[in-house]
C-alpha cells in the first residue's frame, strides 16, 4: 500500500506508544476540531495546525519535541496529515493531561490578565495571533460550552469543571 504522505495512525502509534482511545464523545469533538482546521475540506490539515492544537491543550513543547512529533506523523515531509494521525497524536497528548496543574496551564494561555477570565475577545485575539480562521460564531460556541453560569466569560473553576467532565 502506497503511503500518501498524510500520516497514518499506525505510523504515529508506532513512535508515540500504544493506541489510546478517547470516549466516543471526545472522538467526535476531535473530529469537529479537525474539520474546523481542515478549512478547504481536503481531509488533511497543515502540520502547523497540529502544533497549535498541542499548545492549545496546555503543552509547551520545545521546537525539537514538535519537530519529532511532526516527523513521526509526516514521514514524507508533505506538511499535511489526515485525521487518523491527528487523532493518534492528540489522544496521546490528552492522556498526558492528568492534573489540575496541567489544566490550569492551558487556562493561563487564554486568560485575560486583568479579569482573570477567558472572554470572547481573548479567544479572538489568540486565534488571530496563531492564524486560525475561526468565525465569531465558532469562537462564541467555545465560550458558551465552558461558560457554566452564563455570564459570557469562563472562570478558572468553569474551565476546570469543563476539562474534568470530559472523560479522556
From TrEMBL:
List UniProt keywords, sorted A-Z: Calcium, Metal-binding, Repeat
Which Gene3D superfamilies does the annotation name? Answer: EF-hand (1.10.238.10)
Stretches assigned to coiled coil: none
Which PROSITE patterns does the record associate with it? EF_HAND_1, EF_HAND_2
Gene Ontology cellular-component terms for this entry are: myosin II complex
Q: Which residues are in the EF-hand domain?
A: 25-60, 61-96, 98-133, 134-168
Pfam families assigned: EF-hand_7
Q: Which GO terms describe its molecular function?
A: calcium ion binding
Top-rank taxon, per record:
Eukaryota
Which PANTHER family is this protein grouped with?
Answer: EF-HAND SUPERFAMILY PROTEIN (PTHR23048:SF59), MYOSIN LIGHT CHAIN 1, 3 (PTHR23048)
What does the protein in this record do?
Answer: May be involved in the cellular control mechanism of the secretion of toxins from the gland into the venom.
Q: Write down what this protein is called.
A: Calglandulin
Amino acid at each position: 500500500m502506497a503511503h500518501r504522505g498524510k500520516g497514518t495512525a499506525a505510523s504515529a502509534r508506532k513512535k508515540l506508544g500504544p493506541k489510546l482511545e478517547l470516549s466516543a464523545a471526545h472522538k467526535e469533538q476531535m473530529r469537529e476540531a479537525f474539520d474546523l482546521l481542515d478549512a478547504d475540506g481536503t481531509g488533511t490539515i497543515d502540520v502547523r495546525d497540529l502544533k497549535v492544537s498541542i499548545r492549545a491543550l496546555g503543552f509547551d513543547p520545545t521546537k525539537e519535541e514538535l519537530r519529532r512529533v511532526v516527523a513521526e506523523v509526516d514521514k514524507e515531509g508533505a506538511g499535511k496529515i489526515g485525521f487518523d494521525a491527528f487523532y493518534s497524536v492528540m489522544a496521546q497528548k490528552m492522556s498526558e493531561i492528568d492534573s489540575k496543574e496541567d489544566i490550569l496551564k492551558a487556562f493561563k494561555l487564554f486568560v485575560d490578565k486583568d479579569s482573570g477570565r477567558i472572554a470572547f475577545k481573548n479567544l479572538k485575539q489568540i486565534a488571530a495571533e496563531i492564524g486560525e480562521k475561526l468565525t465569531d460564531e465558532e469562537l462564541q460556541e467555545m465560550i458558551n460550552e465552558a461558560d457554566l453560569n452564563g455570564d459570557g466569560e469562563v472562570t478558572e473553576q468553569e474551565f476546570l469543571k469543563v476539562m474534568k467532565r470530559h472523560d479522556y
